[in-house]
């Protein structure tokens, strides 16, 4: 089958089915972070608000820390049993966990059992997401022609931002339909419970998907891996690629992603004391304006390469974060205790600049990762560095940055963490990463026959 024939109609169905399900999983995952300041007093003691917020952010972070384990568990399943079945399992696990959070009792009702149950459900969410992204990126890439992988996989890259955008939109809609006290008392549950409807729709869409043609070819010829974990990490050359992918690409990509979209929200709400709804609107506007750039940089990477775009995004973010956040403080009208008459247009533009950095590092990353590893172990090999980079290095940004700022009394000190990681990633990537855009996935599969 020629490359062009592989894309006629089928690729758009694949992208649609993969993207909808992945977007819903990101929506489920990010509702928690978007509601961190609301959940803190509900699930932790109220006597120390800062400690409560840090505890909530730590609970949020547990979902990220466990993602690499989900990548191992579901990556192995995806490389042995197939991409499609793994899609279905991760979707149901994520949806069930999110729905259950909406039913949890609060600290006032059951004491320490409430945060314990919350942590457990966040762990299950993290496991599910650890298997979801690698499957979606692999599935789309294995349907795409070799010279358009950056463009087609960039649609998957939009799903994380769209999931965050939708979560903010749902939260704002629910908040607007009731009083503030009512939302804080019970309205916060609605966005979690609504995920059940989205998951059911996505599940039925995914049941109609066919298996990846590359994986199906390997399976038919008996070439699938019997032990993808061993092949991925015991083989010295493949292990080296995993480490290069992590420290030369995904670690920096992860901190840039979570600084530009999540820490920006935390900074506005918790540090600058802006109204929660107004801060969410600022982030939502910036995300809406910036999302098409994922497609632009994904497509651009097909023409000029993945490496230079990712490294440029890391460097630009590291150099400009401090002046951007100082400008955000001024635009918010910060007077030392609260934000007064914030300039929402300027704030949205300042967050948009950060989203541009996000699109530079994130738009090409899926194509870069799938091109590094052979088909028989691709799901496992690409998922692990991606989820360590995003789940641990990136997912810890809100917690570490907030803790650094609180402990030093300097509101900008939290930026030291993402700046350091972004610069280290750029240096390692520039030295050790080889451009991957010329690698041929279908040639790899043809060679396996």
Biggest β-sheet strands, sense, barrel: none
| CATH architecture type | Up-down Bundle
The H/E string reads HHHHHHHHHHHHHHHHHHHHHHH
Q: Give the class-level CATH name.
A: Mainly Alpha
Number of strands: 0
Continuous helix count: 23
Q: What's the number of structural domains?
A: 1
Q: Would you identify the CATH H-level superfamily?
A: MFS general substrate transporter like domains
Report the uncertain regions: 1-7
Q: How would you summarize this macromolecular structure in one to three sentences?
A:
This protein has 449 residues and is mainly α.
Structure description:
With 449 residues, the chain is an all-alpha fold. The protein has a single domain, classed as MFS general substrate transporter like domains (Growth Hormone, Chain: A, Up-down Bundle). The chain is built from 23 helices and no strands. The N terminus is likely disordered.
Characteristics of this structure?
449 residues, mainly alpha, Growth Hormone, Chain: A, 23 helices, 0% strand, disordered N terminus
Topology of this structure?
Blueprint: H1 3-7, H2 10-34, H3 36-43, H4 49-65, H5 67-80, H6 83-101, H7 107-110, H8 113-141, H9 149-176, H10 180-187, H11 189-207, H12 213-220, H13 228-233, H14 236-271, H15 276-290, H16 292-304, H17 307-331, H18 344-362, H19 365-372, H20 378-394, H21 397-408, H22 416-432, H23 441-448
């Amino acid at each position: 089958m020629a490359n062009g024939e592989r894309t006629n109609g089928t690729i758009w169905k694949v992208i649609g089915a993969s993207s909808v399900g992945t977007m819903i999983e990101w929506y489920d995952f990010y509702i928690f972070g978007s509601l961190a300041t609301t959940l803190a007093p509900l699930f932790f003691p109220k006597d120390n608000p800062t400690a409560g917020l840090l505890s909530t952010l730590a609970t949020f972070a547990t979902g990220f820390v466990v993602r690499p384990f989900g990548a191992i568990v579901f990556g192995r399943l995806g490389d042995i049993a197939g991409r499609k079945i793994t899609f279905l399992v991760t979707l149901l696990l994520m949806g069930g966990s999110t729905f259950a959070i909406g039913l949890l009792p609060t600290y006032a009702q059951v004491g320490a059992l409430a945060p314990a149950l919350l942590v457990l459900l966040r762990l299950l969410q993290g496991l599910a997401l650890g298997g979801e992204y690698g499957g979606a990126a692999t599935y789309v890439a294995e349907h795409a022609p070799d010279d358009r992988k950056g463009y087609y996989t960039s649609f998957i890259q939009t799903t994380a931002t769209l999931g965050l955008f939708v979560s903010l939109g749902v939260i704002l809609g629910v908040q607007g339909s009731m009083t503030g006290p009512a939302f804080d008392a019970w309205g916060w549950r609605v966005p979690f419970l609504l995920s059940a409807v989205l998951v059911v729709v996505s599940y039925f869409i995914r049941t109609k998907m066919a298996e990846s043609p590359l994986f199906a070819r390997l399976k038919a010829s008996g070439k699938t891996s019997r032990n993808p974990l061993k092949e991925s990490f015991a083989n010295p050359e493949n292990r080296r690629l995993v480490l290069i992918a992590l420290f030369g690409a995904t670690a920096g990509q992860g901190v840039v992603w979570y600084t530009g979209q999540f820490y920006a929200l935390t900074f506005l709400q918790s540090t600058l004391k802006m109204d929660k709804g107004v801060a969410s609107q600022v982030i939502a506007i910036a995300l809406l304006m910036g999302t098409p750039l994922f497609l632009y940089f994904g497509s651009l990477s097909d023409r000029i390469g993945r490496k230079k775009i990712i490294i440029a995004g890391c460097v630009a973010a590291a150099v400009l974060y401090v002046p951007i956040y100082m400008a955000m403080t001024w635009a918010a009208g910060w007077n030392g205790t609260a934000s007064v008459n914030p300039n929402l247009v300027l704030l949205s533009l300042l967050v948009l600049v950060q989203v541009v950095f996000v699109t530079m590092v994130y738009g090409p990353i899926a194509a870069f990762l799938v091109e590094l590893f052979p088909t028989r172990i691709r799901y496992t090999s690409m998922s692990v560095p991606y989820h360590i980079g995003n789940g641990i290095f990136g997912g810890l940004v809100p917690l570490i940055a907030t803790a650094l700022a609180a402990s030093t009394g300097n509101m900008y000190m939290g930026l030291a963490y993402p700046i350091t990681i972004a610069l280290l990633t750029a240096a390692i990537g520039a030295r050790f990463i080889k451009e991957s855009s010329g690698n041929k996935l279908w040639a790899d599969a043809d060679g396996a026959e």
